[in-house]
Every structure is written in C-alpha cells, then in structure tokens.
Amino acid sequence: MLQQIKNYWSSSRRRQLTDVRNIGLYVFAVIVLAITWSGIKTVKTNYELQKKISTLKQQNAVLKLQNENSALQNQYYQTNQYLELAARQDFGLAAPGEQVLLIPKDVAMKYVDPNLSSVSSAKTKADNLPQYRKNLQAWRDFLLGHKLFED
Description:
Layout: H1 2-10, H2 12-17, H3 20-77, H4 80-91, H5 105-109, H6 114-127, H7 131-144
C-alpha cells in the first residue's frame, strides 16, 4: 500500500493533475459552479416571491369585491324599501289598508323545505349545550384556528 502511494506521487499523471495551469482551471470551475448555484437559488427565490405576490393580489381583489358588496348593502339598508320590509318583519307593522295574519310556527313549518330547517336545528342544538361545553368548544376552535371570523 505504501508503495502504491509512492508510485502515485511520483507518476506523471499526478504531476499533470497538480500542474499550475490545471489548478487554475479547477478554481475557475469551482467559481463558475458557485455562481451558477447562486443564480439558481435567486431564480427559485424570485419564483416563490412572485407566487406570494400573485396570492396577495388575488386576496386584495377579493377583499375589494367584499368592500364593494358591503357598500352596496349599506346603500340598500338606507332605502325606504328596506325600511318598510324591516318594519313589516320585525315589528309586524303593515301599510294602511293591509291586514297582518299571524300563523303558528308548527303550521308554517309544514311548508318549509326540511333541508333549510336542518341548518337552524344545528344552531339550536349548539345553543342547547351546557355552558361548560360551549366554553370548551370555543377554546378548541380558538386554538385550532377554526371560526376565526363569523360570516
């Protein structure tokens, strides 16, 4: 083994590999690889930033549409038509010459689609829970990030 190492150090192949001109090429190749690697990382970083920018622009557009929708709702809430409907619905008021009919809930629910009432029944089930269960569910939702904003 020692003889093989001595033969390698004295061989012409080793002298050719360790020639000053070849060492300069090796250094140049390492520099080129480092620059290429840096360029690839920069392109990757720019791509990820462009994705984030695109996502934020889309979120911004959605929020702008929600703001416009809210502005239209506010305009609707200020109309006389909405005020009249709210007065009829909330206070049971009627226009002059109209009669108000009160229908029992069980009679009215016969004509309601059962799929629509399941949503309200799920909310009433949640309302019927004991306070400690509501509190535990609220903490679970908070810690897991559920229901951050109510629709």
